Amino acid sequence: MLRGFLILMCFLLLGESISFLLALPVNGGVVGMLLLTLWLMINGDVSADLVSASQKLISVLVFLIMPGVVGVFFLADEFTSQWLPVIVALLLGTLLSVLTTFLLMRSLGNDKTESRHHD
Amino acid sequence: MTELPQPFPALLLQLMETPLLAITLSLAAYFAGRTLFRWLKQPLWCPVALLSASLLAATLALLSISYEDYRREAEWLTLLLGPATVALAVPLYQQLHHIRSAWRQILITLPVAASCAALYAVLLAIWLGASADVVASLAPKSVTAPIAIGIVDQLGGSVAMMMGGLLITGVVSVLFVELLAPRLNIRDERIIGFVLGINGHAIGTVRAFEISQLAGAFASLGMSLTGVFTAIWLPLVWTLLAF
Fold first, then answer.
1. Which end of chain A has the lower number of beta carbons within 10 A, N or C?
2. Which chain A residues are closer than 8 Å to B162 by Cβ?
């Protein structure tokens, strides 16, 4: 499991380095994730160590984001005074985007034979 | 309320010198939140993260620990988000074979849908006169939390505000998907799962796994691809438009 953790840390550092050197506005962790995905696709296989380290980290994700979520309860007044645009943007924005995605996927058609073939 | 004995504030100050107390409180709140979640029969409108966080916020207020102090000491957890983000590559790789069964729809839908998820909210917020940092905090609202934190850092928004937006978005997208799918006559579980993952990140994905394994697989695929796609194009567009 620690071996898997080492692989994750190496890809994270690699991602951070690339993001820094190329001055990408993209988070180093995301670059590391993309590189690891690419690496796994090239390799065509994922080691048991890496699977176990990843599963353990992902299973505690809710715990890891807690410091950020707690902040919701301590939001500064400058933010809470803008609750109306925030709520409208979130509710209406999400409704519109769910609707758009559904309509787009429906209009692209649904190849039933293909899905049966693969399932 | 009875007055606290004099040594207590001094002790609290001492304990907040190291991350020990902050980590212990976080762990305790996490498990208490999970128990409460099961006890409430796993409500969809109130995810574990929100339950645990409200318990932790109440504890901090009770002990009169400021959020800034807590956040500084709990930095350790945030650091672990780095490898956890990289770890998302493994489930993404394992779901990639699903792309083959519907690659055409996925390839066309994903960029459009992931852009819409951010753009509608950004445009509405700007139109209603929200400030630049609020707009930046709302932009990654459909992206899974670890990736969204990285995006907000790049855009210069508030992580706390973004987390609030993320939770609300997750809950209402489940609601809207269940409201709209039957009205649009959409029954394909792959589409429903994919739409849940694109718009409702982890909360939508949890709901999709309740529908079926197939819906869940497409939801995690939609969630991962949305996260990756948004993490790349949103900061780039943001820099170009110079918000």
1. C
2. 68
Q: How many domains does chain A have?
A: 2
Q: Say whether both A52 and A106 belong to one domain.
A: no
Asked if the ipTM is above 0.95, the reply is no
**Residue B53's closest chain A neighbor by CA?**
A70
> Over the stretch A17-74, which tens digit does the pLDDT of each residue have?
998 999 887 888 889 999 999 999 999 989 999 999 999 998 888 899 888 889 888 8
Q: Do B238 and A100 lie within an 8 Å CB cutoff?
A: no
CB B100 within 8 A of CB A118: yes
The full DSSP string for A96-117 is HHHHHHHHHHHHT---HHHHHH
Dihedral sign, CA of B78, B83, B86, B88? negative
- pLDDT digits 0-9 by tens, B49-83: 889 999 999 999 999 899 999 999 998 888 898 99
- For chain B, first and last CA: distance in Å? 48
Q: Is A48 an interface residue toward B (CB < 8 Å)?
A: no
Q: What band does B38 get if pLDDT is binned at 50, 70 and 90?
A: very high
A36 Cα to chain B: minimum distance (Å): 6
A66 lies in the same domain as A79: no
